[in-house]
Amino acid sequence: MTSYELLLFLHVAASIIWLGAGFLITMLVFGAARAGERDREAGYHRDVGWLAPRLFIPASMATLVFGILVTIDGDLPFDLWLVIGLVGWLVSFLLGFFYFRPEGERIADLVAEHGPASQEADWRLHRLNLVDRVQVTILFLVVTDMVIKPTGDDAGILIAGVAILALGIAWAASLIRTYQPG
Fold this sequence. Notes:
mainly alpha, 5 helices
C-alpha cells in the first residue's frame, strides 16, 4: 500500500463516518418529528451535543486533514473540484460551530425550562432540523463533487449541483416561513 492509498483510505473513511453519522441523526430526528415524539427528538439533539466534540468535529477535521495530505502526496493540481470540496467542508464546519452548537444549547435550555413541547422549543427544533437537512445535502454534494471531479468544462454537472442546493435551500426556507407550531 502506498502512502497515497493509505491517506486516501483515511480521507474516505473519515468522510464516511462524518456523513454517515450526520445522515443517521437526520433520519432519527425526522422519524421522531414525524411521529410527534418531541421528547425523543429533543433527546437526539442532546446526543448531537455530546457527539459533536467526540465524533462530528474529529471526523470533519480528519476529512479535511487527510484530504489535504492526499492532495499533497498525490501531487494533485488545485482544480475546481478541490475548491468546491473545501468550500462545502467550510460551510458545514461553520454551520456546526456558529449555528448548530449555540442553537442546540438554546434548545437544551428551553427544553429543560419549559419542556420539548413548548412553542419556542418546537419552533427552534423545526428550524434546526431543516437547516440540518440542507447541511446533509451539502455534504452529499461534496461527496458527489469528490467522485466526479468536475472542471469548468462540466457546466451541466455544476449547474445540476447548484440547482439541487438552491432547491434544497428554497424548500427549507419555505417550510420555515410557513411553519405552524403544534
